[in-house]
Structures are given as C-alpha cells and as structure tokens.
Amino acid sequence: MTTILLIMLIWRLAFAVQAISAIPEARVSLTPVYLSSQQRDAKLKLAAPAAIAIGGSGNVYVFDDGNSRIVKLDPRGKFIAEFGRSDSGPGAVRPGGLNDSMAVDQDENVYVNDPGTPKVLIFGSDGRFQRSFRLPFPSTSIAVNRKHEIFLTPDTSRSTELIYVFSDTGKFLRRFGERLIKSPGNLARNLNIAIAACDANDNLFVAFRSWPLIRKYSPDGRLISENQFTIPSELIGESQRKNYSLEFFAKYPDAAFMPPIITHSISINARGIGYLLLNAHSIVIFAPAGTVTRQFHFRAPRDRENVFIRLVASLTAQAPTYFLDTRSGEIYEARKL
Amino acid sequence: MKIMLIKLTLLLTVTSFFIGCHFSTASPTRAFKESFAQVKIYATNGDKEPIPLVNGLTIVNLFDEFSIGCPTGNRFETMERLNSLQPSGTIFLIFSDKHFSTQDVDNFKAILPMRESLVQGDIERVRPYLTSGKLLVVLDSKRNVIWYEKPGMSEQQVMSQVADVIH
C-alpha cells in the first residue's frame, strides 16, 4: 500500500513539475516563397500577417492583419487575389493580432476567426463573402473538419468547455473538452488559451499557448490522448518558474501572473504527423497518436530578425510546410521537417 | 452699492450656471427617454413589441456591434452577477437586429446562462446613446428610465450603482 502511494506521489510530482531544458539544435532548410519587402506594388506588401492556411489545391491563404484582408497566393507565392474588407460592412475583417486564425476546408472555403468583433467569416473559394456568425466571446483558434464543422477555442474567463463546435451555417452544435484550469478568472483565461487543428480523419488536436501539452480528441469529442513536451528553457524566466504549476493556477485563478507564451501554432500533415511551432523558433513533432517524437530548435534564415509565429502543414501530400513571419511578412517553405 | 452689484452678479452667475446645468442634463435625458421608449423586442411570432412591463424593475442591456476592446465578456458577467442578486422584476439582454441574426441569438441562448433573458430587438433609436456598442438601463414598473449607463463608466461602477438601485 505504501509503495503504491509512493509511486502515485512520484507520478503526481513528475506531472506537476514541467520539463524545462535546452532543446537540441537541428537544421531546417527554409526557402523563401514570399518576401513582402521585395514587393514593389503596395498591394502586395503584407502588414503584420497573423495567420496562414493551405487549400487542397496548394494555394496559400494569409490573414494580412495590418491590412484587414485575406491574401491568396499560389504555391510559389504568386499573388492571386485578395478579399475581405477593412470597413464595418459584411465581410469586414479586423486586426486581432496573435489571436487571428484561419482554416480552409477541402472545398477551399476560407474560414476566418475575427476575435476583435468577435465572429467567424466564411468566404467561398473564389473569395466571395458568404456569411458570418457572431460569437459571445472571442476565439483564439479555428479549425474545420471534412464535414465542414467549425471548431473554435474560446478566450474567456468564464468556466466553460475548451472547444465549441458550429456548423458551416453558423449553428452552435456542441462543446467539449476540459479546460486546464476550470475555475473562472483572468489567469485561468490566459492558461486556457488553446489552438486546434484537425487531421485528415477529423480527429482534433489541441495545444495550449502557455502549457506544454498536446491533446487528441476523437471526432465526437472524446479525449484520446494527452502528451507533454519539453519547454525550451529560454521561454520561461526564473521568476516565472516558481509559480508555474497547475496547482498554483488552480488555487489562484485570478493571480497577477503572466504565463509565458510557449506555443504559437499547431498543424497536421497528410500522414497525420503533427507540428507545433513554439515561440523563439522551436518545433515539436508528434505522431498521429499525439505522442511527441522529436523536438528541436532551428535557426531562422535571418536569425533573430525573423519572427515566425505560424507553421502550416498541408492535408494534401504534395504541399510543403510553410512558415509565416509576422514581423517582416515573409513566408518560407520547408520541403522536409 | 458696489458690493451689492458684485453680490447680484455672483447670484446671477450661480443661478444661470445651475439653470444651465439643469437644462443641459435634462434635455438629453428627455430625448433619451423618448428614444428608449422606441426600443422593441421580437416576440416568438416575430412581431416587434415594446419591452414588457413587470412588477418591479426591468434591467435592460442593449448590445449592438461588439467593438474591438469592448469588454463584452465583462458585461455578460455583470448581468449574471446582477441576476444573482435576484432583483424584483426581470432582466433583458437585447441584441440589435442589425448586427445579430436570429441564429446568433439562438446560439447565445444555447451557450450563455440566463437564456430566457436573451432576445433580439430593434434598438436603432438609441444607437447614439450606446457606449462601446452597449448600454445598460433600469426601468421602473411604469417603464420610466430610473438609471442608465453614462459614457466612460467602468463595469465596477455599473455593477455597484445598479446594485444600489436594485436595493
């Protein structure tokens, strides 16, 4: 009995204390696809782009936050079209910074999460605005499955579920998933900020912006797995480490603690391999089951001048993986990760 | 004589100041009351009807376009806290028909607490009085506006002042 209790205690402690360590360096070959600064036409310049998605045809969609529009590029980075508006009329998209997100379904309809208003806007593959629906609170991420169900991760201090699901006509369908911190509160709100991506089988993968965890949910919202990864040591300061535990957050859900930004984006490729792009250029690779298989730090082409906030893989086998730099408006592709 | 003249001038100045204050605040209030009387909510059959009268107070929050930085979530929480005080009367959260569809409001009913209080309405006439896309008003049993949110009020101020009105 004592042994069992001891094992449980060790297990509990192991879970409570997060692995924080230096991450090994690996080389990633990044080829520029779109360099905003080299575009002569003002229309082609991106201003603080905040989200990126890939369509089934390989076309690349960029949420050009500073210009309140969506830019459509071909796989080689050639400008195809722009859509969205900056006014307050239908189809208007507003800047939402890091919380901007976008998803493209298999028919290449474009789903834009506009956290500023907050609402979801849906554009057809031709860029024509189709419809929008309102949300009672902002969302930090959007994903869409093959059934055109829309998955949103709410950004609220309210005690509620982790994922909200809507139909593509905007009807609320269901919600599921346990938040990291169930109590209401502003710190709990920050800790529960999540990002989500669907795989080709409609499973949903969820990661947290400030906690090193990957969850896999079945299409009907059942938790299948939960796996941790290592926090790169440079992402969490000494002063933050003291209180960086779920026990502390659960006890003080309104505490004035600024959690570190760890994870920027999540994406799944055609083979079900998942990627997390972490802050300060680290990547976590996870298997279709959600287990972490590799984690490494990579050097950006222009080193610290690049600020990559989004990595997007494609559910289509042919497409490369893209990296979006929000500071310079640069897009790079990686053929192999 | 000179002192009398100064006193008279002061009296006139003070009097005119108060009269000025009175009229400058009374006029918008009257206009506001008239505008607010035009607020309509949608009945289940789709007809527009005035905010129903109840015994006790009616606490109404109007929502128009959610603007960036608008503490919408905080307002929802304020309304829930007011509801938990169990005011004698009723609470309405009215979402403008211009910026919220019927489905939006149905979704909100499915997602948020106080589902019976959420309705769609025509709030066009009071749009100029909204601050950051919202406005909280308290009516008495005769539909008289007895309190309304002023521009720049914090959620704490709204909460404490309405709580005082309720009690």
Biggest sheet record of chain A: 4 strands, antiparallel
Low-confidence stretches of chain A: 12-16
User: Please, what is the average pLDDT of chain B?
Assistant: 83
The gross shape of chain B turns out to be: globular
Secondary structure: helix percent of chain A: under 10%
Indicate the CATH topology of chain A: Neuraminidase
Structural class of chain B: alpha/beta
Task: Give the helix/strand layout.
The complex is a heterodimer of chains A (337) and B (167).
Chain A: H1 2-16, E1 20-21, E2 31-35, E3 51-54, E4 60-64, E5 69-73, E6 79-83, E7 101-104, E8 110-114, E9 119-123, E10 129-134, E11 139-144, E12 150-154, E13 163-166, E14 172-176, H2 186-191, E15 194-198, E16 204-208, E17 213-217, E18 223-228, E19 231-232, H3 238-241, H4 246-251, E20 263-268, E21 274-278, E22 282-286, E23 292-297, E24 308-312, E25 321-325, E26 330-334
Parallel strand pairs in A: 1-19
Antiparallel strand pairs in A: 2-26, 3-4, 4-5, 5-6, 7-8, 8-9, 9-10, 11-12, 12-13, 13-14, 15-16, 16-17, 17-18, 20-21, 21-22, 22-23, 24-25, 25-26
Chain B: H1 2-36, E1 40-42, E2 48-50, E3 57-63, H2 72-84, E4 89-96, H3 102-111, E5 118-122, E6 134-139, E7 145-148, H4 155-166
Parallel strand pairs in B: 3-4, 4-5
Antiparallel strand pairs in B: 1-2, 1-5, 3-6, 6-7
Helix pairs in contact in B: 2-4
Descriptive keywords:
heterodimer, A: 337 residues, mainly beta, Neuraminidase, 4-stranded antiparallel beta sheet, globular, B: 167 residues, alpha/beta, Glutaredoxin, 7-stranded mixed beta sheet, 22% strand
Describe the structure.
- The complex is a heterodimer of chains A (337) and B (167).
- Chain A has 337 residues and is mainly beta.
- Chain A has four helices and 26 strands.
- The model of chain A is unreliable at 12-16 (pLDDT under 50).
- With 167 residues, chain B is α/β, with parallel strands linked by helices.
- Chain B has a single domain, classed as 3-Layer(aba) Sandwich (Glutaredoxin).
- Chain B is built from four helices and seven strands; from the N terminus they run H-E-E-E-H-E-H-E-E-E-H.
- A seven-stranded mixed sheet of chain B has the order 2-1-5-4-3-6-7, with helices on one face.
- In chain B, helix 2 (72-84) runs parallel beside helix 4.
- The termini of chain B are far apart.
- In chain B, 25% of the residues are buried.
- The model of chain B is unreliable at 12-28 (pLDDT under 50).
- The A-B interface holds A 88, 94-96, 116-118, 133-134, 136-137, 156-158, 164, 166, 169-172, 175 and B 65-68, 72-73, 76-77, 99-101, 103-104, 106-108, 110-112.
